[in-house]
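Reviewers of the previous submission asked for a worked example of the structure-prediction workflow described in the proposal, so we include one complete record here. The input consisted solely of the amino acid sequence. No template or homolog information was supplied to the procedure at any stage.
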Amino acid sequence: MVFGNDYEKKMMSDINITPFVDVMLVLLIIFMVTAPLMTQGVDVNLPDTESASIKSSEDPLTLTLNKDRKVFLENSVIGIADLDTKLKNIFKYRKNKEILLRADEELPYGFVIEVVALVKKAGVDKLGMVTEPVH
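From that input alone, the workflow returned the following structure tokens.
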């Protein structure tokens, strides 16, 4: 393209990037606000261990036990008396019967084992225990 005068050259070199910067800043703010919301499940104080993480082909269900002895299946509160029946119904037609157990470190060992026994009674083949890595 041949420019006829200096005015046309000046107009082509002055590209306004302000709208682009505005859009980028809005996207940055959106990601900064939504990133903390992407954490999984109920907040519990997990015990620290030095074990390595286990890879899985499917996302297993998450069973969470908080320090108040409330049982959460994914993000829904469920009574411990209904846990066996609920898990049997969920895993009735599932090929992989896997659960990840997130238990607060302040819970008594007996309560955690009681829940593990109910999970095994429901027919779950694999039970993984979620922990925090040692810092």
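Residues 18-34 form the longest helix (17 residues). We consider this example representative of the routine output the project will generate in years two and three.
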